[in-house]
Amino acid sequence: MQSLKDRIEQLGKTLGKQNIPKSYTDYKTVRLEHEALANRDVRQLQKEGKRSRIQTLHGRSDLNPKWTFDNLIEDSEDVKEAISIAHSFIAAHEDTAWRKSGSHMMIFYGDYGRGKSHTAGAIAHELINQYEITVLYRQLSTLLEMRFFSYDYSATDNVGEKFREINQELLDVDLLILDEVCVNESSLKKNAQSWLGNLLRQRLAHNKNCILITNHNLAQLEQALGSYCFESIKEYDTYKVRFEGPSRRKEIIPSQVETQRTTGYQPNQVK
């Protein structure tokens, strides 16, 4: 006696349909295949979205794109120590509880061209890439100039409104890098000390992190910032990093040996 399957195959042959499939894919397998494809598409969209967000964060940070660890010259012990501290600071961001536990401040101090800004920028780039941390790099002197001109109520360039917008960014951003702190200044004016002190205190209250970069030593920095502002810094969990290695910047003024070298040609010779 023929089974139902045999009868269907016999009917197919009779009707000239020789290629009737002998197997089929069940619903569960089809569903799993579609879910896998859907998850793949979602992961791709998430990856593209993250890439777009990171590009936006880099664009708004105002960081020098060359300030990376790959470009940082490790030619002295102070730079090596700074890089070690920097990597520890970056790795700590993996712990969300640490991020919310308090405010952290790194003070990079030392002479010009020692790698302070470069190291701070490298930290910022890594935090953006790994954790999508919002970063803002600003020179303090530029902010103080803009703040001064914001009081010109007769100005037509909206500098007051621009400064208020920037001031809000200074408060909101996750990591604020202030460079050239008190550059060429033995003491900030009292109103500037108060403004900076208030800014740091408000960031402290909202668990926001800072990096201060200065050419002063710590005693000179305290004198330049004033007691009120420096007391704000003391409230942070503070890491102090001194840069004292050789300058990495190219020389413009020739060395003594080069200036003594003659070429055989001397202009304005009178014979």
From TrEMBL:
Annotated stretches, region: Disordered: 252-271
Q: Which domain of life is it from?
A: Bacteria
Here the segments flagged for biased composition (Polar residues) are: 256-271
Q: Which SUPFAM superfamilies match?
A: P-loop containing nucleoside triphosphate hydrolases (SSF52540)
Tell me a Gene Ontology molecular-function term this record carries: ATP binding
User: What is an annotated GO biological process for this record, any one?
Assistant: DNA replication
Question: Where does the IstB-like ATP-binding domain start and stop, copy by copy?
Answer: 103-226
Protein name (record) = DNA replication protein DnaC
